[in-house]
Amino acid sequence: MIAARDIRKSFGRSVALDDVSLELGGGEGLVLLGPNGAGKTTLLRVLATLVRPTAGSLRLGDIDALREPERARALIGMVGHGSYVYEDLTAIENLRFWAAMHGQDAGAPRLRAALAQVELDAVADERARTFSAGMKRRLGLARVLLGQARLLLLDEPFTGLDRQGSKWLAEFLLAFKAGGGAIVLATHSFGSALGAADRVAILDGGRLVLDRPAGDLSADELRRIYDALTDPEAARP
Q1: By C-alpha distance, which of 185, 113, 187 is closest to 151?
Q2: Would the pLDDT of 115 be above 50?
Q3: pLDDT confidence band for 19 (50 / 70 / 90)
Q4: For the chain, which terminus, N or C, has the lower number of CB atoms within 10 Å?
Q5: pLDDT at 192
Q6: pLDDT for 63 beyond 80
Q7: CA 10 – CA 42 distance, rounded (Å)
Q8: How far apart are CA 65 and CA 134, in angstroms?
């Protein structure tokens, strides 16, 4: 699903990504760890074709994403920090607006089916301002499902969720993978996100300093490696 080679992104003299390469297949989840400012969000935006890299190549499925970004975006769903919902619109009105903006089918059956997939069909006609943070996150995912994404890019998706919301999201991500979808989830925490991981990568200072199968590492080992790679002083006894 993803084949990124030697991705570099500079903003003037500042290097945000320094020769990052990674591969990810369908049905796999990659959790991307790193401290704030490590380049995680920039990498997600490059993978989403929202930011063009300074150098490198990127294929999503069988598409050269740098040459044909519009085609590549049909495969991608991205969920960032915020919920990006319109508070004064109902759940179904939010989806109808998003669908119309992107030239997608805005018929009621399709919209309600997407809400049912994220368990919001019972509140389809309620205004988003009445929703919890978890419900707003689900509404954002319903937007992704409208586009039939096969690659899900998430930036700190568990932030602000209560236990019930975190449990629902973890189950949703596992089901998305089971259906053949691929996930890249960026975070700086060691919480619920790791449940979606088949592989764990660590980004620090714009460089990919670790990329390993998740099953090779216990939580304690991963924490020690993370501290050693991102903060050598903290790793000293």
Answers
A1: 185
A2: yes
A3: very high
A4: C
A5: 74
A6: yes
A7: 10
A8: 32
Q: Which of 52-61, 122-131, 223-232 has the lowest mean pLDDT?
A: 223-232
Separation of alpha carbons 99 and 96, rounded Å: 5
Give the tokens for residue 5: 């080679």
Residue 168 · residue 138 · CB < 8 Å: yes
- Provide DSSP, 54-80: SEEEEEETTEETTT-HHHHHTTEEEE-
Amino acid at 235: A
Q: Residue 43 is which amino acid?
A: L
pLDDT of residue 189: 76
Q: Given the structure tokens 């996150």, which residue do they identify?
A: 137
Cβ contacts of 203 within 8 Å, gap of 6 or more = 20, 32, 33, 34, 38, 39, 40, 43, 209
Amino acid at 148: Q
At 205 the three-state DSSP class reads coil
Mean pLDDT of 141-152: 85
The two structure tokens encoding residue 216:
């090779």
pLDDT at residue 82, rounded to an integer: 67
Give the whole-angstrom CA distance, residue 1 versus residue 25: 5
Nearest C-alpha neighbor of 35 from the set 192, 213, 156: 156
Q: What is the pLDDT of residues 80-101, one digit of tens each?
A: 776 678 999 999 999 999 888 8
Length reported for the chain: 237
Specify the pTM. Answer: 0.86
DSSP calls for 92-153: HHHHHHHHHHTT----HHHHHHHHHHTT-GGGTTSBGGGS-HHHHHHHHHHHHHHTT-SEEE
